Amino acid sequence: MRIAIVHDWYDRPGGAERVIKSLLEIYPQADLFALVDHFSEANREKYLLGKRVESSFIQSLPFSSTRFRDYLPLFPLAIEQLDLRGYDLVISSSHAVAKGVITHPGQLHISYCYTPMRYIWDMQESYFVDHRIGPLKRKFLRYLFFKLRQWDRLSSERVERFISISSFIQRRVRKYYGRDSVVIHPPVDTAAFGFHADKEDYYFTASRLVPYKKCAMIARTFARNGKRLVIAGDGPDYLEIKRNLTPNITLLGAVSDEKMIYLMQRAKAFVFASFEDFGIVPVEAMSCGTPVIAYGKGGSLDTVVDTKTGIFFQEQSEESLDRALSRFEKSDFDYKSISEHAQRFSDERFKREFADYVRKCISNFDNRGI
Asked: How many CA atoms lie within 13 A of 95 on its CB side?
């Protein structure tokens, strides 16, 4: 069986690229396709097992290495021109347009969906605000997003089977594509985040410091309540957080993987305030035995168990987070049980569930019962 794995693009590694690594460990014979490939050789070895990627014509357009997202209007055309005729199984790894590849009736196309494109569906207005887009550009983007929504819905019909990364994404796939899907949570490197029973008297949060992650809101909450907080990460909100630092808050900037694990293992709790489709970092924290204080929407509902492995708060506000912190400090947690819970999201579990599901799909497809 010849297998093609189609990813949106290879730029900076993240959770989706960890999925690609796991897929290649399941299917080492697979060939790779994407809109563009701007991976460093080090990332290619780590995530793609040294494999090369066949990219689209966008790869050779001017400024593609740094500004390829500006070619968004061309993404549907580019993904449809990838030549997949020689493959039996096509696996798309998609948060944008990868699931729009064209396949023929004899090919099985399974799409692993991180999300329908958020910025063209229900998060359009947030996208305009976060990127400080002016009135004239908004008019152009509204029309572009309208056309992209039409293409996105139409291209979803080319997929035989959808896999969603969480129950939240399963609902979005149903709403925007009108399609059923199974949930297979993405792989988390729980082995790297080892259990540590001795906790210290500080809370911890870590992420890219961008507006939707709500780290500035977390910092304001702790500035008000005086509890000790350590923040790791860098990004546009770094200066705002730094300007309003109080003595109980430590802002580290970007840290090494080793430092991240050290801080995660010893924190009394990890604070997670963003609305995520899944959320890998809370699972990493729980793998350390560290409880998670999480915004109770989106992917967190699949990973955190309220009062067992953490505490939920219901609004992305200082008041709601502060109430959750008070609840947390009145609660007791079994750190070992929290770590054991996190193993449900391990890399080995992902590979087993994904391979089993694909085998069933192939069997049904061969019998034309799909």
From this structure: 14
Amino acid identity at 73: P
Same domain (yes/no): 236, 248: yes
pTM tops 0.85: yes
Q: Are residues 97 and 179 in the same domain?
A: yes
* Residues 175, 140 within the same domain: yes
- State residue 123 phi and psi, 5-degree precision: -115, 25
Sheet strands side by side (includes 181-183) = 53-55, 31-34, 3-7, 89-94, 108-113, 161-164, 181-183
β-strand 203-206 against 181-183: which pairing, if any? unpaired
Average pLDDT along the chain, 370 residues, taken 10 residues at a time: 97 94 98 97 96 97 94 97 97 97 96 93 73 78 92 97 98 97 97 96 95 94 97 95 96 96 98 95 98 97 97 97 97 97 97 98 80
- Contact (Cβ atoms closer than 8 angstroms) between residue 107 and residue 90: yes
The domain in which residue 14 lies consists of: 3-187+347-366
In a domain, 195, yes or no: no
Residue (of 205, 213, 270, 209) closest to 240 by Cα position? 209
SS3 state at 345: helix
| The pLDDT value given to residue 129 | 67
User: In CATH, what number is assigned to the domain containing residue 238?
Assistant: 3.40.50.2000
Looking at the domain assignment, is residue 193 inside a domain? no
The count of domains in the chain is: 2
Please indicate, yes or no, if residue 35 is contained in any of the structural domains: yes
**What pLDDT does 137 receive?**
81
Kindly state whether residues 155 and 43 are assigned to the same domain.
Answer: yes
Q: Which pLDDT does position 366 carry in this prediction?
A: 79
Question: What is the pLDDT at residue 368?
Answer: 65
Q: What is the DSSP letter of 163?
A: E
Q: Measure the CA–CA gap between 78 and 366, rounded to whole angstroms.
A: 30
Residue entry with tokens 């399974």:
110
Q: At what angle do helices 280-287 and 335-342 cross, to 10 degrees?
A: 130
Task: Please give the pLDDT value at position 370.
Answer: 58
Task: For residue 161, tell me if it sits in a domain.
Answer: yes
